[in-house]
Amino acid sequence: GTCPDGKYGDTTSFTCQDCDSSCSTCSTAGSCGCTACPKGKILASLLDTTSPPSACVDTPLCPTGCTTCTIDGTTCTACNAGFYLNEVSGTCGDATSCPPGTFADTGSGTCAACATDCRACTSADASACTFCVDGTFLDTSAGTCGTTCPDGTFVTALECGADTFADTPSKTCAASCPAATYDAGGNVCHPCNPQCTACTGRLWSDCTACAATFYLSGTTCVPACPAGKYPDAATRTCKCPTGCKTCTDANTCTSCEGGYWKTADSKCGRLLLAAPACGATVAEGTANASSFTLAFDAASGCVRIGVNATCDAGKGGQCCVGASAPKPPKFSHLLFTPSGSVCATNAELKNIK
């Protein structure tokens, strides 16, 4: 026969002897012969599989929030009311402790999985998403995640990663703002005004490049250039040649910017430092080697102001001197007298015909 609980069979006396007081049941005498333990105790061999025939030791406490846990007390298997079991980590926490892709399910008391593509949700339904995984976008009206936003909606920065921009026209996330959009801040790209192909803001006056049939005038795209500018089809800009303040086309200036003077062929020439030096003496009738005439400007010294001129000086061929005896240069194809330019009384610049 067998001995009742609390006793073991002594093979020497062939009688049932009492187990050690620490055991519920035992196979041998002593505290290390237990085979079952009273409430609140556990066999040490269950905690350490390398242990010999076991003694009963205090049962490890379950982690905070656990109703039940594994026998070694390290992993929760059920949670107290108001706590939710994270089945991956084996811990119990409040609703905010559920990891991404799960939600606090009050019915099961666990962190249950959201629908596919949901990073956060309020239930397991596909229409309960509140945040989406990277590469998908939340349709807030339907509570679903998809690869694009539905018509009439746009992607926001919340759905894009930290290093990408929410491209509202294409409803996608991009590494940088695409053409015809601008960085509106917060990793969001907004479309430019329809007249612009590039811009710094949403206004019609924030353009930096224009769509076909429009031309950039300052920072505004216009269908026709204002008076004094011509439309350049290649660059889609309203412009004038260098030095021109106003013009009628790429070759005809009607007025010049400051520091430029209008020539007979409707160009605008700029004052440049001259060579030879002001006051240099050359042989009478010698054409200027660099094909410009010399005159004196109070601010700049000796400067270039014309083309193909010869020195026609009565004394020594000195074409340009300082501010003595003002006399405007006489060369027929230059229709202006630069302010401050003078030639010596006996020196005259004459255009080569």
TrEMBL record:
<dbReference type="InterPro" id="IPR006212">
    <property type="entry name" value="Furin_repeat"/>
</dbReference>
<protein>
    <submittedName>
        <fullName>Uncharacterized protein</fullName>
    </submittedName>
</protein>
<dbReference type="InterPro" id="IPR009030">
    <property type="entry name" value="Growth_fac_rcpt_cys_sf"/>
</dbReference>
